[in-house]
Amino acid sequence: MEMAETEKLTPMMRQYRTLKREYSREILFFRLGDFYEMFEEDAKTASSILNVTLTSRNGIPMCGIPYHAAKSYVKKLLDAGKRVAVCEQTDIPEKGIATREVVQVISPGTVIDDDMLASARNNFILAAGRIGSMLAASWIDVSTGEFFIASLDLDMQASSLRKLLFELDPSEVLIQESLFYDVPAVKQAAGTSSAMVTTFPDWSFDIDASYAACTELFGTRSLQAFGIEPKDSSLFAAGVLLSYVKDAAKVSLGHISSIQQYSAATHILMDESTQKNLELVKNLQDAGEHDTLYSVLRHTRTASGARKLRSWIVRPLSGHEAISRRLDAVDRLYHTPQVLTSLRNVLKGVLDMERITTRILAGKAHPKDLVSLRQSIEASLSVYTLQREVIGLTLEDESIRTLTELSSLIDRAVFYNPEASMQYLIKPKYDHQLDALRVGVNRSSAMLEEYQEQLREETGISKLRIRSNKILGHYIEVSKSFIPQAPDTFIRKQTLVNGERYTTEALIAMESQIEDSKQQYRDLEQDIFRSVLQHVRDASECISTCADITAAIDCMQSLAHSAVTYGYVKPSFTDANVLSITKGRHPVVEKNLPPGDFVPNDLHIARDYHRFCLITGPNMAGKSTYLRQNALIVVMAHIGSFVPAEKALIGTVDKIFCRVGASDNLARGESTFLVEMHETAYILRNATQSSLIIMDEVGRGTSTADGISIAFAVLHRLLELRSKVLFATHFHELTRVDSPLLHKLYLEILEEGESITFLNRVKEGSMHASYGIHVAKLAGLPRSVIRRADAMLKQLELTRHSPGDQQELFSAAAELPSAEPQHRNTDRDILEIIDELASADINRMSPVEALIFLDRLKRRTGELT
Ligand code: ADP
Ligand code: MG
0.90 exceeded by the pTM? Predict the structure, then answer.
């Protein structure tokens, strides 16, 4: 069957099928003349994604796109989760069909084109596999050259992988087959990330092969320079990753000059839920960037600075010294506003050096890229000079020299002027030989002009012209009326309606001379351009260090600028296990309110008492805000940022946990209560006395009795652990627990008659009423419902100690509406009308509104009678 079909195929379709067998997971762009064509299944899929017409030839579905517009189509396919294999014609033989080869596979994690990348985010591609009980991961940002390996614990929840995915937000993930299929949590984690996920066979993961791939990449004998041993298990996934990027995607990796061990020890541990719940870089509403800590602190001026700031925020430092280094730098900038302002101006001139260099090294350079690189190097060097006295971050002298030389070389050599009529690669005066050739090329046009003059004189045809086009080359054009005057030496080339085109022996000779000199010029120009690129390649390590330092300076100025803009203060760190925040504020909520409207609050956790803050108060009173602001202040301090408070004394924290009760977090597939318990278990197992734990209304997902009991037991355990805890709850019963370690707080509200006002002020003590009914009223529940709820609450409170009586209350509870038809329920309707009248605020109505209101009531009474 298959044979018969194959025989019917044209040679080209046979070639297509052969290629397609190898690239079955990709959309194959098959080059045909000026088009990329897609066939069969690919054509069907792509035509609907790209919105191009699906046609068919000999019954084979096909669609095509013009090759010069491929970029935008590729982007659409990538966005739709597809990979694209680009197949080009590599040779056109005398007879038979062109040979074709896939020259590149484009996938979300391997693009380096600026138009397809978000500048403020790293574009990571990550590979992960299981080795023993560990998870080995490796990731690269091909566009910037950052390369990491890691070996992490692997538990049943795949927490380490989740966290990594959250932190890095990779666009593509390669997972070992058995890991993906044997550990359900891995599949689930991969599914919830936005990355394109592909599984790879187990045999492709191998430490030795990875080691070899890395040494080959760096051209070294060992990886000692990077502190990596031959049998290091964190290498396990690196080989797959490198071979995928290099062999499949055919991206050059020449710009990757180092490999880093990713270690958790130097950073505060925050799991995925914590990062999510604190809205560090993505908000809970739409996973966008707005209303996040990142959005508040991001005043960076460069793309690499923005990327670095993001990584600082998701990985706060845990070492005292490292934190102080950043914090002191921010502090000095804060106190030298002139330097801060100039830095911000100069940084604007630094373009995305890492990505530009990547393009240059990948051989996709345009003179514009080189000019951008030069500009960025120069701006970076001025940045170093500017902050030398303030932050003191800089490159080694040797590197500065290399970069200065490179920059001046580019300046002297590379021609880039978008307005110039002739585009060259190399500037005049850079190379004598090239200048001489250029003179030759220019002379040829003068030569043609002279020849034209000569011919005009000889023939007497004053309108004779020498012109050229791509098809004919050079020719002599004579209009119709002068044709009889053309001499015999003119050789006819082409006849037009209103004239003839000729050539002559002399013109043919001149032409070949012109072509020769042009070709010579182009060849030499290319050689010189390549030698400039080689200089960039030789300096690529310096460039990447330079880019890194500049990005760090950019982050520091961004933090200093935020501090100035929003009135933050420098936190103090202490070795004592305490946390003391005076007049703290929530950086995001505060920014969304009119200036001065945010009510600041204190938090004081001492070494031996008040370690557990139990926070009560009605809905909307500000509990969640208070909890999170304190966690955010701690995170900010560990990043090296100033904090929104009047004063902050912070004992270094090892881990931060933040959990939000099920009622506030419904977006997951599993039973929410089960998730809550999983997460609570995780905290109880991992917290230490240096950890900070935020629990917001945990225990809501089950019945009251269960919920209280669990909450109580958790409280008990956390008191034992002596972690720093902020625990908001609606279980008022918990406030009866008594311990010096417990600090009871509530959010103050003001009751005036029937209405309440939220003061958002944290007070010592606890609140017994929950004011749920007040909130219900604010939300506009009908009066009759509110009245009934109020009555029930009073009864319940009276019979609090007698569950039997409480149940009676519900069965005895008044005359519930009967099953009779509802339309004659006059009493209820009248009550509702009274309700409406009572709650109408006549003072706020315009005369017309009052009339409309009256009219509506009248019509309703009409329906009753
Ligand atoms: P709760 O968790 O007690 O239900 P939230 O913390 O969600 O309350 O706060 C509800 C709203 O009140 C917030 O969205 C915010 O607009 C406002 N709010 C909370 N705390 C403050 C504060 N300290 N100052 C001003 N407004 C606040
Ligand atoms: Mg809340």
Answer: no
